[in-house]
Amino acid sequence: MLDLAGNAYFENAGHTKNADDDFQLSLYESYGRWRLDASRKLNPTLGYRFLYLDLDNNSPVLPRRLVDQSIGFGTPFAQIESGWFFALTVGLGYAGNSPFGDANGWYGKGTLIMGKELGEDETLVFGLSYDGNRSIFPDFPVPGFAYTKRLDPTLLAVVGFPFSSIRWEPADTHLTLELMYTIPDRFEAQARYQVAEHVQVFADYTQIIEGFHIDGDVNTRRILFHQQRAEAGVRVEPVPGVGLIAAVGYAFGQEFNRGFDTRDEDRLASVSDEGYLRFGIEVRP
Predict the structure, then answer these.
(1) Burial class for 263, CB neighbours closer than 10 Å (0-12, 13-18, 19+)
(2) Contact between 227 and 208 (Cβ < 8 Å)
(3) How many other CB atoms are there within 10 angstroms of residue 74's CB atom?
(4) Mean pLDDT (whole number) for 223-227
(5) What average pLDDT is seen over the chain?
């Protein structure tokens, strides 16, 4: 089973706040997964992520492009009679300002998972995760846990670290509300309303932090890109399982910092707040 998505963000022309250099950002992303077996809830799966930042600027401190691409594989590998299951993910990625041009831009990823279904709508999971391009603690594995519970038919909650979420679909409405937080890289708040069978309107708020190695610059080590976005748009499903998205939004809090991770970063440049257009596609049979 395939699950694919892609987005393109086109910001208005702006400037850096500290030096008033010309600046315009276009951001492209794609991600997906391919479940090799659909017979169980947890199955062998291939996944990928691609992120490209086109930085049209004349600043002497900012690169012209930043790219992060990774591929990974996950699979369950054991289940014992008590109901506990074990799974593993491994991956490889590259994040930098030139495609595969910096040996320091390569990074590994991996997660060891142990979990148990406590009931039909209740799951407990423990994990140990390493991500060599994480915005904080990229140098060692981070432990985590997640307790998932469907509190009633309309409310699903995940309480854990580093990821938590809550999803509410009020009964007898076409509304879906969701909050998701991955410490400290990403926060999302989403509202969806189904206005017709194949038409949905939405409003989103997103906060992201992305890291990239800089080729040949030992002092910079990594550039950390901070951004917040608020947007509203429409999603149309011309055929089942395929969604086309168009949205208008506002990007703010945009910063390019340098440092090893978010515990120790210095400002390179702040970028003006700008409006943007987003066009996207989702393929989820």
Answers:
(1) exposed
(2) yes
(3) 20
(4) 96
(5) 93
